[in-house]
Amino acid sequence: PEALVESALWEASLFEEHDFHDIKISVKHNDPVVMVNAYRQLAAACDYPLHLGVTEAGPAFQGTIKSAVAFGALLSEGIGDTIRVSLSAPPVEEVKVGLQILQSLNLRQRGLEIVSCPSCGRAQVDVYKLAEEVTAGLTGMEVPLRVAVMGCVVNGPGEAREADLGVASGNGKGQIFVKGEVIKTVPESKIVETLIEEAMKLAEQMEADGIASGEPTISVAG
């Protein structure tokens, strides 16, 4: 990291000699640890805006993890002004990952967020299928709406109550929560349909109230 910082500052000095200061510095590296240390040192050594990047991060899965680790560490410390996610994947996937990282740090407006539990012995429904169907049914929704899809009666009610909209499933049925209150109990076969219907109602109300839109996000609660 020291060599990266030394080189960047030397190149910046060439511009400074000509009284040119309208620059942004980047010290990208393919190793997240080296990259993070380099940017920390650079931030301590100068006041120029910094462009963050883990270069040549690799395929989508590996590159997403590398980028999230590095950007999360730096941005949470207030280091970094712009970012570039570099994946061996279509550019649109790079943009999606970048937006998700910024949204996770509350640096960008959140959009639709699906909170769903992982697999465990308490789950009494197919949570994976339920979450996928709800996500597919709400694709394109842009208002900042948090939807909890929970598969048991242990963590389910708490998570569902804290979300804008949620379901706590078990014993072949699901309790539907809206803004912390149980509004109805439906058969398991009607959970997806009911959640989508209630989400649309909430979205319409939020749009009518002028709440800003964001990009869809998905997270898993465990």
Q: Any overview of this molecule?
A:
This protein has 222 residues and is an alpha/beta fold. It folds into two domains: 1-105, Dihydropteroate synthase-like (TIM Barrel, Alpha-Beta Barrel), CATH 3.20.20; 113-209, Sulfite Reductase Hemoprotein, domain 1. The protein is 43% helix and 19% strand. The strands form two sheets. Strands 7-6-5-4-3-8 form a six-stranded mixed sheet, sandwiched between helices. It has a two-stranded parallel sheet with strand order 1-2. Helix 1 (2-16) crosses helix 2 (32-45). The chain is elongated and about 70 Å long.
For the report, how would you describe the main beta sheet?
6 strands, mixed
Distinct helical segment count: 7
What is the first-to-last residue Cα distance?
Answer: 36 Å
**CATH architectural group of the largest domain:** Alpha-Beta Barrel
Strand content: 15-25%
Q: Bin the helical content.
A: 40-55%
Give the CA-based shape.
Answer: elongated
Number of domains: 2
Find the structural class using helix and strand composition.
alpha/beta
For this structure, what is the CATH homologous superfamily of the largest domain? Dihydropteroate synthase-like
Strand order of the largest sheet: 7-6-5-4-3-8
Would you tell me which CATH topology of the largest domain applies? TIM Barrel
* Helix and strand element order: HHEHEHEHEHEEEHE
Number of strands: 8
Q: What radius of gyration results from the CA coordinates?
A: 22 Å
Protein name: 4-hydroxy-3-methylbut-2-en-1-yl diphosphate synthase
Domain IspG C-terminal: 113-199
GO biological process, one term: isopentenyl diphosphate biosynthetic process, methylerythritol 4-phosphate pathway
Keywords: 4Fe-4S, Iron, Iron-sulfur, Isoprene biosynthesis, Metal-binding, Oxidoreductase
